[in-house]
Write a structure and sequence with these properties.
Order of helices and strands: HEEEEEEEEEHH
Shape: globular
Structural class: alpha+beta
Distance between the termini: 40 Å
Strand content: 25-35%
């Protein structure tokens, strides 16, 4: 999955924050795999790194497209691995960054876990979210090659979080009552 990270030199992308309508739109599938797509995905990756994120979806930079980028390398524990295209125990660091085009969750575990999440589109706020512990995601890379990945821990959580963005859903939709009260206070304090 690693690609040469020659970031396009033009204007960097800006993060859309909660309240922006594009974050609530269902995104459009990608059908054209060309240099323009490759450049856009690299710009997304640069934006994610510049903002110290581990995942970024196209709606977060104002584009209603089924694209997300992920690099969970900074958050991995020793021994974290996944299954990729049938190969088991793949070192996650070796497949980062992931460029996921038209990703879809095809399987999820009945087992769930609660973990803290944050989001570049909801700066300076985090809350506990319950999600399936393990998921399988099918997606295409920037060369239109199909892939399947099964992961748990941080990678599973990050993929679910980003795919939610592609369906117009924010992690704040999944938080509990107490955190919703905190969110309401946060939103009132950050209103324009």
């Amino acid at each position: 999955m690693n690609v040469e990270q020659n970031f396009p030199a033009d204007k960097p992308l800006n993060i859309c924050v909660i309240g922006n309508h594009v974050l609530r739109e269902k995104t459009k599938s990608i059908t054209v795999f060309d240099d323009e797509l490759s450049d856009f995905v690299k710009k997304m990756l640069r934006c994610m790194y510049d903002n110290n994120g581990i995942g970024l979806a196209a709606p977060q930079v104002g584009q209603s497209k089924k694209i997300c980028v992920i690099d969970v390398s900074p958050c991995l524990s020793d021994g974290d691995s996944c299954t990729m295209d049938g190969s088991q125990n793949v070192d996650i660091r070796k497949i980062m960054p992931l460029f996921m085009i038209n990703p879809a969750i095809t399987e999820e575990s009945a087992e769930t876990s609660d973990e803290m999440e944050g989001c570049l589109s909801v700066p300076d706020f985090s809350a506990s979210v319950r999600r399936p512990s393990t998921v399988t995601v099918q997606f295409m890379d920037i060369h239109a090659q199909k892939h399947s990945i099964t992961a748990n821990a941080i990678l599973a959580r990050c993929m679910q979080h980003e795919i939610d963005h592609l369906n117009g859903r924010l992690y704040t939709d999944l938080i509990g009552k107490t955190d919703k009260l905190r969110l309401a206070k946060y939103l009132s304090e950050h209103a324009d």
